[in-house]
Design a protein that fits this description.
The chain has two domains: 268 residues, BirA Bifunctional Protein, domain 2 (2-Layer Sandwich); 103 residues, Anticodon-binding domain (Rossmann fold), CATH 3.40.50. Helix content is 40%, strand content 20%. The protein has 20 helices and 16 strands. It binds histidyl-adenosine monophosphate.
């Protein structure tokens, strides 16, 4: 076989770990994004769009050199100028970079930003875990108080409630700060020293670089039941902060499950961290949602069920060259959130609006029918009502055009025949009711606006 015929016989497929979003799926994505946009707006967040790739060094400095993402999950490349770049594995680093670069701290004493976009991680693909996936995230700069933590958590909870997902758990912990975390780290390492011979390869490596991740290890985590947890080491300020967050949440009707072993896969967090999970995706969470205390959550449970995660990162802005501004944020995985909605059967029906089909009968009517098609498609009032218009199969027999309209699930059909053309009329047919009437051509738009109520065409 020649090289050319081998090349020609290759069947192209989406790259492993990536996936196409076909129109039915994009409709669900759009609904989720619309809900998030509306709600984030109510909480005072404004949209930011940052590039999908950044300087590699930005991710090293912000996510942490020893995190799984930086060590083995980034798509790194060199551009033509020899610059080392990476596809963004998450959104926070880029947003913080933009916050610093555009001096947003000076122009916005309270700066609340949200973003929607694809992220890239070279993880082992499996159900709900992709190499390119979508996140909806929010970052809140300039508020060091527990009110901000509680507000962010409540925003996330309100979003999941608005989406109709009730089977959701909000795990909450505090990772302490520069005062208490080093003390905890020492205690943890001392404890682990005795366990070292039994630790898995990854954990032996983590012990020196990032011992907190051992709590999260699928192999060693569940086995080491007596590992000390951070809450016994919180300094006074961190304890007060955490207590205030939980008490604000309780007062405002928020939920949380205190999870002292909750750590995150990113190094930038200080104090509050949280994770949103659900058992709808098949994860077996411990049956302790009623209590405020949770024992062990294995990594497997978390990775399968983690819909969203976030927390406070008070030192990150300064760490990557900006002013000393506290911040916090979260991101949800769109695919996982939509999978959970689907599993819980609460996914709203995807609506494509109302379709009107334009048909013609007879060759002389084609230019007039085509003109009509364009007139309807360019009418802003119909556009606002999400009324879409299909046509352009005028060379087919009328019966075949009507069959096509039916297959497309069109609600109405507008027929331009020879007689209609001569009299300045059109035939208006309701495909659901199988009724039809003649109306003057120039009244067509007002007729459509009358028969299709404003809310009928609008996507929820
Ligand atoms: P993260 O926990 O790495 O946090 O990711 C947030 C969410 O993105 C996860 O809970 C999950 O739903 C989704 N996700 C992550 N990896 C994948 C994947 N490979 N396939 C599908 N979905 C995935 C962050 O990214 C932080 N930037 C969140 C944050 C914002 N913290 C502060 N501000």
């Amino acid at each position: 076989m020649s090289y050319n015929s081998i090349v020609m016989s290759v069947k192209f497929q989406a790259v492993r770990g990536t996936h196409d979003l076909l129109p039915d799926q994009t409709a669900h994505f759009q609904q989720l994004e619309a809900r998030a946009r509306a709600l984030f707006g109510q909480f005072g967040f404004h949209e930011i769009r940052t590039p999908t790739f950044e300087a590699l060094e930005l991710f090293h400095r912000s996510l942490g050199e020893t995190t799984d993402i930086v060590e083995k999950e980034m798509y790194v490349f060199e551009d033509r100028g020899g610059r080392k770049l990476a596809l963004r594995p998450e959104g926070t680093a880029g947003v913080v970079r933009a916050f610093i670069e555009h001096h947003l701290a000076q122009t916005n004493p309270v700066c609340k930003l949200f973003y929607i976009g694809p992220m890239f991680r070279a993880e082992r693909p499996q159900a709900g875990r992709y190499r390119e996936f979508w996140q909806i995230g929010a970052e809140y700069f300039g508020n060091p108080y527990p009110e901000a933590d509680a507000e962010l958590l409540l925003m996330v909870q309100t979003l999941y409630r608005a989406l109709g997902l009730t089977d959701v758990q909000f795990k909450l912990n505090s990772l302490g700060d520069a005062t208490c975390r080093p003390v905890y780290r020492r205690a943890l390492t001392d404890y682990l020293e005795a366990e070292k011979p039994g630790l898995c390869e990854d954990c032996v490596r983590r012990m020196a670089k990032n011992p907190f991740r051992i709590l999260d290890c699928k192999i060693d985590g569940p086995r080491l039941k007596n590992l000390p947890t951070i809450d016994s080491f919180w300094c006074g300020d961190c304890r007060i902060h955490f207590k205030a967050v939980t008490s604000l949440l309780e007062k405002a009707g928020g939920q949380y499950v205190f999870t002292p072993r909750l750590v995150r896969g990113l190094d930038y967090y200080t104090r509050t961290v949280f994770e949103v999970s659900t058992s709808s995706l098949g994860a077996q969470d411990p049956p302790s949602s009623a209590s405020k205390e949770e024992g062990l959550a294995s990594k497997q449970e978390r990775s399968q069920g983690a819909l969203a995660a976030g927390g406070r990162y008070d030192t990150l802005v300064k760490q990557i060259g900006g002013p000393d501004v506290p911040a916090l944020g979260f991101a949800l995985g769109s695919e996982r959130t939509l999978d959970a909605l689907k599993a819980a059967k609460t996914q709203p029906a995807a609506s494509r609006g109302v379709l009107v089909f334009v048909a013609a009968q007879g060759e002389e009517t084609v230019p007039a029918a085509f003109q009509l098609l364009q007139e309807l498609r360019s009418n802003p009032q119909l556009g606002e009502r999400h009324i879409s218009v299909e046509g352009g199969f005028f060379q087919k027999k009328l019966g075949a055009q009507l069959t096509l309209a039916d297959r497309l699930d069109a609600r109405y059909c507008v027929i331009m025949g020879q007689d209609e053309l001569e009299k300045g009329e059109i035939t208006f047919r309701s495909l659901k009711e199988s009724t039809q009437t003649r109306i003057p051509r120039q009244k067509l738009i007002s007729h459509l606006l009358d028969v299709i109520p404003a809310e009928a065409g609008i996507q929820p």
